């Protein structure tokens, strides 16, 4: 076990050296797993924050020990949503599907030995970890310094995401195995690749915005503050121009960030649906184009959020059209999912259940998004509950479903064991019911308060239901969080006691990662695999098995009798 | 199409060939425990050096986006403000610009020498390029000091904020370029994965990019007076 770069002092401190080498390993699988652990930690922390918020909303008088420790001030409570949001968006939705699963499986799926720049990869992970530490610390310390620390941490996160995206893009372009042409790439790889390109563009914009904000705080510049020298001007100049710049930069990023979180999920779900339907992805080319379209539109729709902030940018109509045009690639994806499922002999397991749950949430969330894309609707009816319901349903919960589907799917490859199916089923159904109980009433609340703004509306009969709806939402959250306890138990139990998987390809899937041992050894394949066909060759006529792995040479494929 | 199905005379089960590269494969050589960078070259050498060219190309797009975000913020604020107090650009910036343009020229001359296998000439010109890069950085710092002596600070007004942010961010990126120049000069390429030709080429892309970026920023600052 001696490597020739650290062999000299290996004898004296075996435990320490081994530990450090594992911790700062440049291996893409180690880095991917570290990202997943980071996301798991963040998701439970973020969930605890949302629980505190909802309990507080439902029973404002209740004494919550955790908040009392922090001083229990209203300002303190107001930072909870920020903390919850940054944990969930940055360290779960951005980190897990892209950096976590991507780092682990992208090189395996394209037949590469490593990421293009392994050391850069380690740097990305540790910068992300430092950023998580900073965001958490920012929440605990005094408010004014806390917010600067938060901005600094987000800048660090952006830098890490940029390095990671660079790695993904270059790996996909240059390190594909022989025969792995672009049309043969699995859809997961396509999604990770497009996402990396999108990330390269928008994280640099957020980084620039964060640096300006930091310099406002540290050096007293006036990029975003209501500057005092503008204060001598008409108030409207200061009020209009300055926040507009910040909003433009921020939403340019934030809108695209939604697609950053969604893109890998779309790829994963398409992949899973095809694998468990035992059918090729229906209209695979169109799906790839749709993924590109999501990336492209995602980059262009930042102005959409301007309506919601009451600011009329250059032309509301243009952005409205753009925002609605997202419906086109989304529709292509949905049609392809149903086309793949059509007439299929489906293997309904927890992984596919979560993928189908994603489809359901994507559809219902997407429909409410169509309301929001109408500029006349949002300028008058930006009611917190409707927006909160919409983006949680699409971005938060749907993406989480895709992450869970991916986890159940790849768990045998990651750890060599299977997750428990009955527990997984229970977890799915409780979560699925729970999130609909939470977010559907939220939409309704938003619509009711929208209607309340119209003169002549008589809502007295509804008013008494509003409080009840809020309590109902909180109860729904409690159920959902309880279900996540089941998941945590299932996950940890399966990690140590789960049924061992002897077969390296338990799902009978086609892509390259299933051609190596579970978990893959570090030197899993000294010989470069050769790819002979596309990623979704299921139920090919004249073949004995109902699938043909990508790396099996044509003359070695067993034919049907 | 390579995706077509087997000739029928050969029959093997998929079971046999599945896991073709799996756990059962014997390790090759004695160094299979390396999980670091060096463990990679077990196939046919390290992965394609093309990844460095691709990486720098994509990285440059990203850096460009960063500066475009700043530039668009600059334009929006400049356009929206009625009391824009432009920074009087120090004269030394013209000299700096000349030096940076000259360094791009000497860099190309150096690469020409290298392609003709004139290593001594290459090193001399490359060193000159590096010195000019450092001179540029020093010139920018002098410009800062001159402004500070005039009482123009980063927090003075928006124009000055942008001036310091633009020059500062560009300077940091340019120092990275100087580091790359030094790396090519000092690195022993006998042991390296990439050739000095490739390293010099990649560095030259980045250096010319920094050059062009400075021209753009300088023009932006100059024209917005």
Account of the protein in words:
The complex is a heterodimer of chains A (561) and B (225). Chain A is mainly alpha-helical. Chain A has helices at residues 14-23, 28-58, 65-69, 74-110, 118-140, 143-174, 187-219, 228-231, 235-277, 284-300, 304-308, 316-325, 327-341, 350-373, 375-380, 384-415, 421-452, 460-497, and strands spanning 417-418, 499-500. Chain A has two domains: 26-226, Cytochrome C Oxidase, Chain A (Up-down Bundle); 255-519, Cytochrome C Oxidase, Chain A, CATH 1.20.210. Chain A is built from 18 helices and two strands. Chain A has a two-stranded antiparallel ribbon with strand order 1-2. In chain A, helix 4 (74-110) packs parallel to helix 16. Chain A is globular. Chain B has 225 residues and is mostly helical. Chain B has one domain (51-80, 93-223): Four Helix Bundle (Hemerythrin (Met), subunit A). Chain B is built from six helices and no strands. Chain B has helices at 14-17, 50-80, 92-115, 119-149, 158-186, 196-223. The N and C termini of chain B lie far apart (62 Å). Chains A and B meet through helix 6, helix 7 and helix 9 of A and helix 2 and helix 5 of B.
CATH class of chain B: Mainly Alpha
| Count of β-strands of chain A | 2
Give the CATH H-level superfamily of the largest domain in chain A. Cytochrome c oxidase-like, subunit I domain
Radius of gyration of chain A: 25 Å
Mean pLDDT of chain B: 80
Largest sheet geometry of chain B? none
Poorly predicted ranges of chain A: 1-14, 226-235, 303-319, 378-382
Distance between the termini of chain B: 62 Å
Structural domains of chain A: how many: 2
Oligomer: heterodimer
Share of helix of chain B, binned: 55-70%
Low-confidence stretches of chain B: 1-42
Task: Show the largest interface.
Answer: A-B, 92 and 67 residues
Tell me the overall shape of chain B.
elongated
Kindly state the number of beta strands of chain B. 0
Order of helices and strands of chain B: HHHHHH
Structural class of chain A: mainly alpha
Q: Helical percent range of chain A?
A: over 70%
Number of domains of chain B: 1
Strand order of the largest sheet of chain A: 1-2
């Amino acid at each position: 076990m001696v490597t020739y770069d650290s062999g000299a002092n290996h004898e004296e401190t075996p435990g320490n050296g081994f530990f450090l080498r594992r911790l700062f390993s440049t291996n893409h699988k180690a880095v991917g797993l570290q990202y997943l652990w980071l996301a798991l930690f963040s998701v439970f922390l973020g969930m605890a924050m949302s629980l505190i918020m909802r309990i507080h909303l439902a029973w404002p008088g209740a004494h919550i020990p955790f908040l009392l420790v922090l001083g229990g001030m209203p300002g303190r409570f107001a930072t909870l949503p920020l903390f919850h949001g940054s944990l969930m968006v940055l360290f779960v939705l951005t980190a897990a599907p892209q950096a976590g699963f991507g780092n682990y499986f992208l090189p395996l799926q394209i037949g590469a030995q490593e990421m293009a720049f392994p050391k850069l990869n380690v740097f990305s992970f540790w910068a992300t970890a430092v950023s998580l530490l900073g965001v958490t610390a920012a929440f605990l310390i005094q408010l004014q310094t806390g917010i600067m620390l938060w901005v600094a941490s987000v800048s660090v996160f952006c830098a890490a995401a940029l390095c990671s995206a660079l790695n993904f893009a270059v790996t996909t372009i240059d390190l594909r195995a022989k025969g792995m042409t672009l049309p043969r790439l699995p859809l997961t790889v396509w999604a990770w690749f497009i996402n990396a390109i999108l990330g390269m563009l928008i994280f640099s914009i957020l980084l620039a915005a964060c640096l300006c904000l930091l310099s406002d705080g540290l050096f007293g510049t006036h990029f975003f503050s209501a500057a005092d020298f503008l204060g001598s001007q008409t108030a409207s100049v200061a009020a209009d121009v300055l926040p507009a710049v910040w909003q433009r930069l921020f939403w340019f990023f934030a809108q695209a960030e939604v697609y950053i979180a969604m893109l890998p999920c779309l790829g994963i779900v398409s992949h899973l649906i095809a694998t468990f339907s035992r059918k090729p992805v229906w209209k695979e080319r169109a799906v790839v184009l749709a993924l590109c379209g999501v990336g492209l539109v995602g980059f262009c729709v930042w102005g959409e959020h301007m309506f919601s902030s009451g600011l009329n940018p250059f032309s509301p109509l243009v952005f409205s059209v753009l925002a609605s045009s997202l419906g086109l690639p989304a529709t292509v994806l949905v049609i392809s999912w149903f086309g793949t499922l059509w007439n299929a002999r489906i293997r309904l397991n927890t992984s596919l259940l979560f993928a189908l749950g994603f489809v359901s949430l994507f559809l219902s969330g997407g429909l409410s998004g169509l309301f929001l894309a109408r500029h006349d609707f949002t300028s008058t009816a930006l009611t917190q509950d409707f927006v909160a319901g919409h983006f949680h349903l699409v971005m938060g919960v749907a993406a989480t479903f895709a992450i869970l589907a991916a986890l159940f799917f790849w768990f045998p490859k990651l750890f060599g064991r299977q997750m428990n199916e009955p527990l997984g089923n229970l977890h799915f159904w409780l979560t699925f019911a729970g999130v609909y109980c939470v977010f559907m009433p939220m939409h309704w609340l938003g619509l009711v308060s929208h209607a309340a703004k119209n003169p002549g509306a008589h809502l007295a009969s509804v008013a008494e239901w509003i409080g009840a709806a809020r309590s109902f939402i909180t109860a729904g959250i409690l159920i959902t969080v309880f279900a996540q306890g089941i998941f945590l138990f299932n996950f940890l139990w399966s990690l140590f006691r789960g049924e061992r998987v002897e077969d390296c390809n338990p799902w009978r899937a086609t892509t390259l990662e299933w051609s190596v041992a579970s978990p893959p050894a570090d030197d899993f394949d000294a010989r470069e695999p050769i790819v002979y066909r596309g990623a979704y060759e299921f139920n090919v006529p004249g073949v004995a098995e109902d699938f043909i792995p990508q790396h099996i040479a044509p003359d070695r494929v067993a034919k049907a009798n | 199409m390579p995706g077509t199905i087997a000739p029928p005379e050969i029959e093997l089960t998929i079971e046999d060939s599945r896991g073709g590269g799996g756990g059962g494969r014997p390790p090759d050589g004695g160094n299979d425990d390396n999980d670091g960078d060096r463990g990679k070259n077990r196939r046919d050498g390290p992965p394609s050096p093309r990844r460095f060219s691709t990486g720098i190309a994509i990285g440059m797009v990203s850096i460009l986006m960063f500066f475009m975000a700043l530039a668009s913020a600059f334009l929006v604020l400049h356009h929206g403000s009625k009391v824009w107090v432009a920074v009087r650009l120090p004269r030394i910036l013209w000299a700096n610009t000349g030096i940076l343009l000259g360094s791009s020229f000497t860099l190309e001359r150096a690469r020409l020498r290298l392609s003709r296998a004139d290593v001594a000439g290459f090193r001399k010109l490359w060193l000159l390029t590096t010195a000019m890069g450092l001179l540029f950085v020093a010139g920018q710092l002098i410009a800062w000091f001159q402004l500070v002596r005039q009482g123009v600070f980063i927090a003075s007004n928006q124009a000055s904020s942008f001036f310091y942010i633009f020059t500062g961010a560009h300077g940091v990126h340019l120092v990275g370029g100087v580091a790359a120049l030094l790396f090519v000069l000092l690195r022993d390429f006998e042991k390296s994965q990439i050739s000095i030709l490739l390293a010099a080429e990649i560095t030259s892309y980045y250096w010319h990019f920094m050059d062009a970026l400075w021209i753009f920023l300088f023009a932006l600052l100059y024209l917005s007076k």
